[in-house]
């Protein structure tokens, strides 16, 4: 459980921006040094890139520097550094907000940094991350383009805001899609993905962003990058400021996670549903 929405029950004496009763969200990170120790400066935190802090504590199965454990959101109470508890805008219901705290910021951050208004931006992997990416692309003033190897995804991705859809299992669609986007976001994590095909979708001097993490080695023809001046970019969640900006944009532009809600007592059923690949698009457990 690393996409959590709850109510503040206790605050530390040094906390002034949160109060008991506030509705807050917690994502995949619950602590970073934020360069608070002048004797141990942190280049990443100084640069506002706390997701890459070497002393970072993730939300579950991790240990704080004082020895306390971070157990995640399958719980009644969760302890986090106050910097990593984010007020949720009133417009966003809790169930729709929860996936924004990891899936949402994971796609929002590299899109914000690499996409200009008017760009054509493709998404491969229309799932928990991809369905949010299509909405954020639209919110950033760009044109969302969806790619899939399943023709039956077209109706749902167009409903999310995709302006175009290409079925990459169809040779004619694949031919039309070559060089069709300025930026391509890969959220899928399947093995044996056709990276040469995906790189071919990107225009010259475009950007290929990877946030999905497959378990196999990546194989592709380097000339597809070199001869066409394509940038290959990786990105890890987002910073404290990225999360704040993402939530504000989601509230303003009506970006919402589509979820299937279940009681916490059905946690095993929820995990099984998520693993089946049939969930649309995130399972949210309620306590």
How does this structure look, described?
By secondary structure, the chain is α/β, with parallel strands linked by helices. It has 2 domains: 4-92 and 261-278, Medium-chain alcohol dehydrogenases, catalytic domain (Quinone Oxidoreductase, Chain A, domain 1, Alpha-Beta Complex); 103-234, Rossmann fold (3-Layer(aba) Sandwich), CATH 3.40.50.720. Helix content is 27%, strand content 23%. It contains 10 helices and 15 strands. The strands form 5 sheets. Strands 10-9-8-11-12-13 form a 6-stranded parallel β-sheet, with helices on both faces. β5 and β6 (69-71) form a beta hairpin. α3 crosses α4 (130-139). The chain is globular. It starts with a strand and ends with a strand. The mean pLDDT is 96.
